Model the fold of this input.
Amino acid sequence: MKKAAVKEQDIREYWQANDTFHASVRNREGKKPYVFYEGPPTANGMPHAGHALGRTIKDFIARYKTMDGYQVKRKAGWDTHGLPVELEVEKQLKISGKEQIETYGIERFIEKCKESVFTYEREWKQFTEALGYWVDMEDPYITLDNSYIESVWYILSHIHREGLLYKGHRVVPYCPHCETSLSSHEVAQGYKDVSDLSATAKFLVRGTTDEYLLGWTTTPWTLPANVAIAVHPELTYVTIRQGNEKYIVAEELAKTLFKGDFEVLASRKGKDLAGFRYEAPFSYVKINKGHQVVLADFVTDQNGTGLVHIAPAYGEDDYRVVKDNGLDFVHIVDGKGRYTEEITPLADRFVKDCDVDIIKLLAEQNRLFHKEKYTHSYPHCWRCDSPLLYYAMEGWFIRMTDVKEKMQENNQQVEWHPGHMQQGRFGKFLDNMVDWNIGRNRYWGTPLNVWTCKCGKEKAPGSIAELMQEAIGPVPEDVELHKPYIDQIQLRCECGDAMQRTSEVIDVWFDSGSMPFAQYHYPFGDKKLFESQYPADVVIEGVDQTRGWFYSLLAVSTLVTGKTPYKRVLSLGHILDENGQKMSKSKGNALNPTELMETYGADALRWALLSDSAPWNNKRFSERTVAQAKSKMIDTFSNVFSFYQLYQQIDQFNGERDSGGVQSTLDEWILSRLHNVTKQVNDYLEQYDITNAARELGAFLDELSNWYVRRSRQRFWSSGMTEDKRAAFSTLYEVLKKTAQLLAPFTPYIAEDVYLQLTGSSVHLTDYPKPDSGVINTQLEKDMRTVRQVVELTRAARNAARIKTKQPLSTLYVMTEEESVNLGAYLTTIKEETNVKEIVLEEKEGLFIYTAKLDFAAAGPKLGKRVGEVKKALSQVSQEQLGDLLKTGMLIITEDIKLTTKEVLLEKVPSDHLELSEGSGITVLLDTKLTVELKEEGFVREVIREVQTYRKELDLPVEKRVNLYIDASSSVLDILKNHEDMLHQNLVLQNIYYEKQKAAKAVQVEEEKLQIGIV
Ligand SMILES: [Zn+2]
Ligand SMILES: [Zn+2]
Done:
């Protein structure tokens, strides 16, 4: 294990030994609950980067709300049922499809499913623990448990009693590979752009030999199942002659359909076509009632021919129009999506692969008018990626359309993050809601608890007790609520017959949508507990759950209680790779969160996820982002703490006992910043703006490390415990403690590590810090911010002039636009930071020189031919004259030519030896002239640096006073002797000897060779 991971492992062991997680929940007993629902993952796949984001945000919210005073129970959950599990087992057993499952044996198959469900449970637990996600995994809800299923039954029974569960025929999306239908919200998860063929086929009008109805379809494979042609009653249709044939099409589309000459023979309304009989292009299937023109409002003249081919089994509109007209229903596709044997040339082939063959067959019979490639968004199975087909099927539906308005109202109560989800993606989805196709013709799932009788009666027992009561014969006490066991139980019907359970299992999304109730075995379990945990204050999942869990939770809750199950939804974006591509195993661009945590630590991963961008945005993410989080944030905090610890041990400082001292401005400043940041962070988190809270803290750590600690170093070096040193210690102690608390929900490990070492107790059992406005000093913060900016700008100027930091310079001029800033009190600080002898806070004459050019566009017309003359004069004007121009707005070139400021382009450049740098309303000018004295001082600084480096190499205790031996040329020694004070100020020295010491180290400073000895 890498170092970061080892340290975090130690903290984890501390949490386990002290049961800190549960203590943090117990700690808030009797406090207001903040209710959190865990969206159950499936444990038969490995966790990926998206899970790391979800779990980080969940943990963040729960830890923060706990510290903020709420009790946040966190029950884990596992989603265990459904097709994914079955498909995995099929793969494992090397079988495929329902036939082979039944040959293998349903009971054995179900047992395999149960085993497979927890394949990666260990990995999930390790991942969850490593990430620091505190969730109660010892007592999770599991959707396959009898108690969970019993609650789901209770809910479905309730829905059945309300008359909202019905068996119907509906055209539903169907996956031919999984051999089951899908619900509309499942379909919504798998749209892909594909290229397909559309066909315009010729349907011969009965009784003619050359007159055709042109029927259009985007699914040529359905043509052998044609039953009717639909036209719009109010559209105008024309009969057209072209060549030897006649065609009937919508008038509007004739020009698009026919190139070249054609003749219009007749024109009539669609309703006058009704009842026209025709011969379909294919006659594999015998039709008794059909092959005639019918009327339908959904037909338009916007595309195709204005006549629509109707195959009732494969489209919702088709199904309805055929039913309304009492025509035949034809089905030519088997359960695996293949043509039945009646379709002789194509029998047993997957229908969607046969569009080209159908078009060829049409062409061979002279029944093809036109074909065209087109690209459209087509639904694919979200699980196995097969293209879906639309079939008319018998199935069980929940009448969601009856509660649509209630759902919409409930959605209005929810606080969405991001806010646009409410009316946007989620709201629109609700607007287009259809009935929920709840049954699945599969094996591994919650059995649909409806028993039916031949007499037409239905029963939906809502509990095991009810099941036992209604059953014919005894039901074992420990009956398992799964296939095939449950199918062996028959119920007694009022008519005297036996009732059989309908064979379906239910949609897994209904399982997970029932979790607010089923996780506490409602209404059989602890009702008080349920009531205290309903509804949720927050649910947090990826945006793809809009049509998944967010929907199913709202649907189930609205059906059961009429209320919304959550007050707030945090909908998270996707994790993308560096190039903005979706991560996927197959593309090889997927990041492994476990590996990242091992290399950089969970704190770094969490910080990267939390601070990078708002959680609802899609994130471009890479290993580099995590590496940066570690070096910029985690290491910074850790280094500041190490610095404190080093001196705390030397001086035996005790943060609680020894507090006090006389605070410096620097202390006041960092405490003001601490409380100001505390206020900002609290404000942001109140609005769930985690990213900006993280950024405030990141900026604060930079100020703490690169300003407060760096500028306070010398205070810690002084010997003895002065009042100034005491204040420095107390301040740093206070800041570290509070910062650890502020960081606790973000980076729980390092926060715990620091807090534990400072106080001996867990940071996660403390209250989240609140600001003390009395400590906030905005003027001081503003001043210090300006000082830091001045220093930054001066460094930039130095870099631009290529002068080393160690080289002292004479003067720095500072001009600020902001008048309320008081830099006068910080001149020493600025001098030290910039290594400049004198700071001048006002603009003086001569700092800038002006150059002037003629603005031809403005002055040209006025000057005419004299332009050249004026241009020349302008290049020779003096600085005084330009100064006058600025003052009076007028420049006199000759007696008769005067220029205004508008006609002259004035450029202001720094005078020689001055380097300019500006930004944020601040201008600095650095005098870069080097005198002999300045050069000598720069030389001495370099020597000091060499001595410090050598000291470090010798690994001497920082507080140890040493004797320094220096040998060099006499001119160098003269310089050093002249600056002995400086050597003493900067090096912890006893004496300086200008002679060679035995074990001396040879160094080179500029052109000079020196021998340094330290004893
Ligand atoms: Zn599928
Ligand atoms: Zn009956």
Observations:
- The chain has a mean pLDDT of 92.
